[in-house]
Design a protein that fits this description.
mainly alpha, about 110 residues, 4 helices
């Protein structure tokens, strides 16, 4: 996990921004019992912060330049699952925006 909370791939360029990989990894970690595997310290909070920082005004996830990522509907759907599982403060707002963007489509 990077300092900004994202998970990135050093091998696959399509996953270098973190928007495509972070919701997938975070959702997986949220489902693993804490007695089975340790989560990175403050990892959930940092990942949630990263996803929130990448939310565009329309509610969807975008890369650092504001462009749609390669898998916008998958990313948004996984991010919705992350927010509903982690339930950070204000999660309902995040879910509403992501859901609105997903239903609208790319």
């Amino acid at each position: 996990q990077s300092g900004d909370g994202a998970w990135r791939s050093p091998v696959y360029a399509i996953f270098d921004d973190g928007v495509d990989l972070t919701p997938f990894v975070l959702r997986t970690l949220l489902d693993v019992p804490t007695d089975a595997a340790r989560r990175p310290p403050d990892g959930t909070e940092r990942a949630v912060g990263f996803l929130r920082a990448r939310r565009h005004a329309d509610g969807g996830l975008r890369d650092a330049a504001g462009r749609l990522e390669s898998f916008p509907n998958y990313n948004a759907a996984l991010a919705v699952l992350c927010f509903t599982k982690a339930r950070p403060e204000g999660w309902q707002h995040d879910v509403a925006g992501l859901t609105r963007d997903t239903l609208r489509g790319p």
